[in-house]
Amino acid sequence: MFSLLPTLVFLTSWLASVLTCADTSDLVPLWRAYNGGVVDHFYTTNVTEMESALTQDGYSLEGSSAYVWTTQETGTTPLYRLFNQDKNDHFYTMSNDEIAEMLSAGWAYDTTPIAGYVYPFSICGAAPIYRMFNPTAVDHFYTMDIAEGEAASGYVNQGIAGYAVLPSVDGSAVVSSPTPYLLPSTVTASSASEATTSSCATTGDAIPLLRAYSSIGTDHFYTTNSSEMSNAVAVDAYTFEGDATFLWATQETNTVPLYRMFNQNVHRPLLHHRCQRSKRRL
């Protein structure tokens, strides 16, 4: 019996060489939230939809799980979203065969039937989106960090749901990185910041600085803590606005603290947050 592995490797290499890669500047975060009450993981690229899940449906924001495209681009395929109302479970797949199987088992296309667009193969620097399943709770959990998936208690690995490009902070593709972070699409890195030097902080350690706004308090609020952001949205009536930028949670080479201050007494009942860097030179 001969092995198909050399042929598969050849085909994957051939696909990577002949396909034009999708535009990474069009990537958007696939936000992840979790509801411990019904035990369900929920994923969406729509900030308004995520806001509703946090404020009305009992979900807590867990950050961005991957980066995908919202419209079909070269070489990409739809990542479909299904939902089983009786089991409170969202299911994501790019496979038509899996869709047929899940539809017959009680799942249906969700109100947003396409969660985004991903690569069907490991091409153009794409890395796997792993699907984990908890048969007891009937919950599907998706992550690009295989260590996170395998550490999830009660979950088993069901394979790969699709492939997504994991950009670094400066927008360049990082193959098989577990840290899917990208600058907001309207921001570009300066030539100075892109300079290669051993004194730069590690871009792979950068995390999103999440932003929210309260029209009641006329206040913008920023945090890297997804639980704190969930509380601000669910309890303090803030509206989640996505990621503002990327920074480091611990001090690294040539970085300084970004302090957060709060004034509860300015123009009561308005609440005001202010961020200010250290007086040390950057």
Sheet with the most strands: spatial strand order: 8-7-9-10
Residue ranges: pLDDT <50 for 5 or more in a row?
1-18, 167-197, 278-282
Q: How many separate domains make up the residues?
A: 2
Q: Average the pLDDT over all residues and give the rounded result.
A: 78
Percent of residues in helical segments?
Answer: 10-25%
- What is the multimeric organization of the chains shown? single chain
The helix-strand sequence is HEEHEEEHEEEHEEEEHEEE
Indicate the proportion of strand residues. 35-45%
| Number of DSSP helical runs | 5
Output the structural class.
alpha+beta
Shape field? globular
The Rg value, from CA coordinates, equals: 21 Å
Q: How would a textbook summarize the main sheet?
A: 4 strands, antiparallel
End-to-end C-alpha gap: 62 Å
Question: Total number of β-strand segments?
Answer: 15
Task: Give an overview in words.
Keywords: Signal. Pfam families: DUF5648. This is DUF5648 domain-containing protein. There is one protein chain. The model is unreliable at 1-18, 167-197 and 278-282 (pLDDT under 50). Strands 8-7-9-10 form a four-stranded antiparallel sheet. It folds into two domains: 5-174, no CATH class; 203-277, no CATH class. A hairpin with a 5-residue loop joins strand 9 and strand 10 (173-174). It contains five helices and 15 strands. The protein has 282 residues and is α+β, with helices and mostly antiparallel strands. Helix content is 17%, strand content 38%.
Q: Which secondary structure elements does this structure contain, and how are they paired or packed?
A:
Blueprint: H1 5-18, E1 28-35, E2 40-44, H2 47-56, E3 60-68, E4 77-84, E5 89-93, H3 96-104, E6 108-118, E7 126-134, E8 139-143, H4 146-151, E9 156-167, E10 173-174, E11 207-214, E12 219-223, H5 226-234, E13 239-247, E14 258-263, E15 272-277
Antiparallel strand pairs: 1-2, 1-3, 4-5, 4-6, 7-8, 7-9, 9-10, 11-12, 11-13, 14-15
